[in-house]
Design goal:
This protein has 13 helices and 21 strands. It is an alpha/beta fold and 494 residues long. The protein folds into two domains: 224 residues, FAD/NAD(P)-binding domain, CATH 3.50.50.60; 149 residues, FAD/NAD(P)-binding domain (3-Layer(bba) Sandwich). The protein has a five-stranded parallel beta sheet, with helices on one face. Strand 15 and strand 16 form a beta hairpin. Helix 1 runs parallel beside helix 11, helix 6 packs across helix 7 and helix 11 runs parallel beside helix 13. The longest helix is centred in the middle third of the chain and has 24 residues. The structure holds NADP nicotinamide-adenine-dinucleotide phosphate. NADP nicotinamide-adenine-dinucleotide phosphate (NAP) binds next to helix 4.
């Protein structure tokens, strides 16, 4: 079967295939369009745009980065209904942006790219439904949080009620019907916390399994009424100011706190400790005390979680899980916790970076083989040996409590530099040199000292050796790096 969008006949402008129609893929597409590169296609495994906001439909799903900051800079939204927008509202925003920029005709929905092979000139792409295509550049905009991590709980398939991963909440399960029902939630990361807080409000009988307690920053929500929304619409600078304030707060307080031991770290730590101290029952407070330092893991943001846990319809279990039985979960102390529904808020395979797609270079080497000893990409984007494969949000890109949209926009600056350079100079391929990547990684490691990530914790930020796969500089430095012209000593071009 031939690809839905024909291979370009225009030799001057490269054809770009983007994997994923989430926020990052949409930014990539819009920037290509704005720069006059119209030969691009987005392959999307789902049936709509929106990525994480399309997939996550669990009760309470919301973005814990304020909405006026968590938006495309080129498409502010005066209509946000609350400071921390709900998942459905963000998804509606994503859809409206896709419509406005005419992205849909460029998107092939319901097709998952399963393999791509570089032949020295182009990437040859195959999808799970038998579609084939070719592209000069292949951009992985798959996001780090979309392959569910489901622990191998003995007996899980025997559970008599419904069970599912947090990102796979069944469309036909209305959370309101869970009022009075016994729901088990395994995990207390950002997803688990939002689910538990919401189910507690609905009146479900919720039990949360907390293996490792996490620090919680009490960021409260605030609803914007019709008058406030009308004001922002009439005076767009109000929305820009709100977005600007939160950008400053997240980039100069949260992002700086993780890399320097300065006032930001002290301020956030004290807020988390005060929040924990607000839990009245000393036994519950003790159970909720994390073993590590605030911000070593991605900070959980919630003003609702501790109040929810203090309601009579919520229960916290710290005992390890032994197995699952038809009636519920059995903990190591032999106790059976009976449930009607079991939610696995157990996180994601965060180091997939485009996989399980099988990426094969000209020499027949796969990406997984190339990363056998160490996952890495020059500037977080280019994998040596894999020409014209560009990762949005790759290893050592910024990750944390700030807007992923802001960073995707910065990374797209660099990718556009590559594509424009290739077009200007008639290049077939751009490949990062191995030594350039090693130098980049050394510069990251040189700044590890002083970061919160090396203080000891279990976190999806860390690699198998316990080293963070995060950007260790400031947000401003990352943007500067992304805006810079390509350094010819770092790349092989042909
Ligand atoms: P997560 O932070 O990785 O948390 C997974 C949870 O599952 C942890 O509490 C973990 O316990 C627990 N778990 C895993 N395996 C277990 C097992 N075998 N037994 C018991 N507990 C187990 O996953 P997440 O909550 O889905 O969040 C992932 C990321 O998504 C976040 O860090 C954030 O970046 C993003 N997110 C963002 C928002 C937002 O508002 N912006 C909302 C939701 C998610 P341990 O800690 O002991 O491993």
């Amino acid at each position: 079967m031939e690809g839905a969008n024909k291979v370009s006949t225009d030799n001057k402008k490269p054809r770009v295939a983007i994997i994923g129609a989430g926020a990052a893929g949409m930014i990539m597409a819009i920037r290509l369009q704005k720069a006059g590169f119209n030969d691009f296609v987005i392959y999307e495994k789902g049936e709509d745009v929106g990525g994480t906001w399309r997939e996550n439909r669990y009760p309470g799903v919301a973005c814990d980065v304020p909405a006026h900051h968590y938006a495309f800079t080129f498409e502010p939204n005066p209509g946000w209904h609350s400071r921390l927008a709900g998942g459905a509202e963000i998804q509606a925003y994503m859809k409206s942006v896709a419509e406005k920029y005419g992205l849909r005709p460029h998107i092939v929905f319901g097709q998952k790219i399963t393999s791509a092979k570089f032949d020295g000139t182009r990437w040859h792409i195959n999808t799970d439904k038998g579609l084939v295509d070719q592209a000069d550049f292949l951009v992985a905009a798959t996001g780090p949080l979309h392959v569910p991590m489901i622990p191998d709980f003995k007996g899980l398939d025997q559970f008599a009620g419904r069970h599912f991963h947090s990102s796979e909440w069944p469309e036909d399960l209305d959370p309101a019907t869970l009022k009075g029902k016994r729901v088990g939630v395994i995990g207390n990361g950002s997803s688990g916390v939002q689910i538990v807080s919401s189910l507690a409000r609905i009146g479900a009988d919720v039990t949360v399994f907390v293996r490792t307690p996490q620090w919680v920053f009490p960021l409260g929500n605030r609803f914007f009424g019709a008058t406030e929304r009308a004001l922002v619409k009439t005076f767009p600078w109000i929305g820009r100011m709100a977005g600007g304030f939160f950008k400053w707060f997240f980039e100069h307080v949260f992002a700086e706190a993780v890399i320097h031991d300065g006032w930001q770290r002290k301020f956030l730590s004290s807020q988390c400790r005060r929040n924990l101290a607000s839990v009245k029952d000393p036994e519950l407070q003790r159970k909720l005390a994390p073993p590590d330092k605030p911000m070593c893991r991605r900070m959980v943001m919630s003003a609702d979680f501790y109040p929810a846990l203090q309601k009579s319809n919520t229960h916290l279990v710290q005992e390890a899980i032994e197995r699952v039985e038809p009636k519920g979960v059995v903990t190591k102390d032999g106790k059976l916790h009976e449930f009607d529904v079991l939610v696995l808020a157990t996180g994601f395979w965060t180091r997939a970076y485009g996989r399980p797609l099988e990426l094969v270079n000209e020499q027949g080497k796969t990406l997984t083989e190339a990363w056998k000893d160490k996952v890495g990409a020059h500037l977080s984007i280019h994998v040596p040996g894999f020409p014209n494969y560009l990762i949005l949000g790759g290893p050592h890109s910024p990750r944390g409590n700030f807007s992923a949209i802001a960073y995707s926009e910065a990374i797209v600056d660099h990718i556009m530099n590559c594509i424009e350079l290739a077009t200007r100079k008639g290049l077939r391929s751009i490949t990062a040199r191995q030594e350039a990547m090693v130098g980049f990684q050394e510069s990251i490691d040189a700044r590890l000292k002083g970061t919160i990530w090396i203080t000891g914790c279990k976190s999806w930020y860390l690699d198998d050796n316990g080293k963070p796969e995060n950007w260790t500089g400031t947000p401003g430095e990352f943007r500067e790096l992304m805006r810079a012209e390509l350094n010819p000593t770092e790349f092989d071009v042909a």
